[in-house]
Specification:
Layout lengths: L1 E3 L4 H4 L4 H8 E2 L8 E6 L4 E6 L6 E2 L6 H5 L8 E7 L4 E5 L2 E5 L4 E4 L6 E5 L8 E7 L7 E3 L5 E5 L8 E7 L10 E7 L5 E2 L4 E2 L4 E7 L7 E7 L2 E7 L3 E5 L6 E4 L4 E7 L9 E2 L7
Parallel strand pairs: 1-3
Antiparallel strand pairs: 2-21, 3-4, 4-11, 5-10, 6-9, 6-11, 7-8, 7-10, 9-12, 13-14, 14-15, 15-23, 16-22, 17-24, 18-21, 18-23, 19-20, 19-22
The structure holds 4-deoxy-L-threo-hex-5-ulosuronic acid (D54) and zinc ion (ZN).
Length: 280
Amino acid sequence: MDIRYSANQRDVKRYTTEELRDEFLITGLYKANEVVAVYSHVDRMVTLGCMPTTEKVSIDKGIDCWKNFGTHYFLERREIGIFNIGGEGTITADGQTFKMGYKDCLYITKGTKEVYFESTDAEKPAKFYMVSAPAHTSYTTTFIPIEKAAKRPCGEAETSNKRTINQFIHPDVLKTCQLSMGMTVLEPGSVWNTMPSHTHERRMEIYMYFEVPGDNVVFHMMGEPTETRHIIMKNEEAVISPSWSIHSGAGTSNYTFIWAMGGENMEFDDMDTMKPNEMK
Ligand SMILES: O=C[C@H](O)[C@@H](O)CC(=O)C(=O)O
Ligand SMILES: [Zn+2]
C-alpha cells in the first residue's frame, strides 16, 4: 500500500513540482479487478479506488490489514464512504447487497467484516471511489442516493463559481464517527470551486475530481493562504489537503468533485474563510 507520511507547511514551501505531486496527489485509482489504496498519516485517512470488471473484488484485495492497520480486517476499527462514479455495480456488506448506480453513495459502518465489489457489465465497469477514517463505534450502514443528499446551492455565474454542494455523509443525513463526504457539481461556464477559499485546522480534506471532459484539467490550489501552490489534476485524480492548506480549484471547464473530511470537528461551516485578495 502506498503510504504518505504527513508533510508540514514549512518544508512544503520549498517543494519542487514533483515533490508536491508525490506527497499530495493520488493517481491511477482504477486498475481492473484491483483495489488501489493510499494511506495518509494526515488523520489516518485511506483513499481507495476499485474497478471490478470480470471479478468480485474484496475490499482488502492486495492489502495486508495486520501489517498496515494492526487489525484483522479492513473495517474492524474503520468506517468508509463509497461513491460509484462508473457503470452500474453492486456492493455486498456482510451479506447485505446494495445496487449502486452512477453517483450513488454507501456508508459502511465499523465492524463490517466482508465487503465485495462487482460490476453489472464488465464492458461498463463500476468505479468505486472510497475514503475511510478510523472509527470508535458502529452506526448504521446506509445507502444514500443523490436525492437524499442535503443540497446547498452556492456561487454565481458572474464569478464563475455557480455550483451545488451535495452533502451525502453529513450529520444532517446520518451519524458517523468522523467521516463526512459529499459531491460538488459545477454548472457549465463555472470553473471555480471553494472560492472564497478556506482552511479548517480541526479536520483534513481530500478532493477527487471527475467529469473533467477530454483534455481539460483542474488547477488545484493548495498551501497556506499566503503561500499558495498549485497541482494540475486530470480526471479521476485525488489530492490530500492537510489542515493548514487551502483546497480550491479552477478548471479549464466545469467538472464535479467528491470531498471527504476526517477529524473531530464535523461542523461543516466551521471554516476559516479569507477574501480572495488576502491570499498570495
Ligand atoms: O469544507 C468543505 C469543503 O471544502 C467543500 O464542501 C467545499 C466545496 O465543495 C465548494 O465550496 O465547492
Ligand atoms: Zn474544506
